[in-house]
Amino acid sequence: MSKALLRDEEGATMVEYGLMVALIAIVCIGAVTTIGTTLNAVFSDIAALL
User: Rounded to whole angstroms, what are the CA distances from 3 to 6, 8, 9, 11, 24?
Assistant: First the structure.
């Protein structure tokens, strides 16, 4: 019975790691999108000044 419980905990840990990876990926995508939009505006301003 203790082996079955250990397997259940490993499965839960795997799900938790998967959720953490998904959350980190969402944060990274959001950050890259925001930075890209900001950089686009900066480079557009620079191009207008040239």
Answer: 5, 9, 10, 13, 32
